[in-house]
Amino acid sequence: MGSNKQYDGYRAYEYLEAGTDFEPFEFQDEPHFFGDPCEIELDSADAERADALSDQCEIVSMHEHAFYFPKEMDAVEDYARQGRAFTAYDALAESTLDAVFDWHFDGVLRMHSRNGWKWTEVIHDLGMRAADVEKQDLVIRAKSIDDIRRAHDEGKVAIVPSVEGCMMIENEIDRLDVLYGLGVRALGVTYAESNALGTGGRDEHRDGGLTTFGERCVERMNKLGILVDPSHASDNTTLDVCAVSEDPVVLSHNGAKALLDISRLDPDPVIEAVANTGGVIGIQSAPHNVASPDHPKHTIESVMDHFQYVEELVGIDHVSFGPDTLYGDHRGLHQYMGKDYSKYPDWQTIEFDYVEGMENPTEAWHNIVRWLVREGYSDEDIRKVTGGNVLRVLETVWD
Hints:
There is one protein chain. The protein has helices spanning 44-56, 76-82, 89-93, 119-133, 145-154, 175-181, 212-224, 235-244, 268-276, 300-314, 330-336, 361-374, 379-397; strands at 60-64, 67-68, 86-87, 99-104, 139-141, 157-163, 186-188, 227-229, 251-254, 281-283, 319-321. It has 399 residues and is an alpha/beta fold. The model has no long low-confidence stretch (mean pLDDT 95).
């Protein structure tokens, strides 16, 4: 359905009274926080082809945060404490997305603790967002591939509730069943820090891999039909997950460590191991995280350097996109969360405010298709990397 969404103008929590039922925050007036959108230039024939493909393909983002952050970053802590993330219905209605894995993470999971990731916080966030979705008609919470295809056919957006780590389950494996019952269909193994399942990416210097409990959790996720995503896990943990899982494994928002040597990205053997499960690697565009030597100022061109590297390494059937974008000041959010760039390569010390061409989900997916058309990819390959590869994985994991 592309950008022809069936949207009636609903805004998040419109069923309540701002200032009485909840504290209002100032958000940006339009999807682009940093001025005018940036569009990949095409001639008229290619632009027509890109628009047609955006309408025809089932476009699925492996990783986004499809809600607004406050306009002023000094309000983020109060915003998180209130526990009411505002889904960006209006911006999603302008996008070409048919489905988005919408990841709950510790940027908002801080209602009860500065450290986040408490069980009560995750349940609160899932329930609050679900309550709001029930009050509108554009977004549906996807629990099956049929929901994604229905969204495409009816001009809606299917949101897949997903959680970026398993810290909150502690040593309670049955909490995975609870999360599944609440609609969660994708789970991260760790979120940077290590947990009971395994070593997080931030602890790669003491990489113990997946624990015995972690093995049981992966097996339970397979039985439930939850997509397993070790994006923020250590290399050994990811390799162990690939060895244990009977279902395909994904890296929903990653890139090639060969192009940018940081712990957040993956070396070739890890990327190959994920592909060998039948899985897919989603290329991200979070600020600083996938710059490249050829494009050190992080833009859509550096993102696509990682895309083409992974494509060449494991093949077109095992790569897609998980831009990991949001509606707001993403770089400012990283600063608020204490992201440390001191260990990044010297060539990536360039200052920038946002990722040009992929500032938010709306812009990113408009430009992804246009870039692929500009570079001469076939219609079939564009269908694969914008959603077809992900749907193939879901046919195994969810069915």
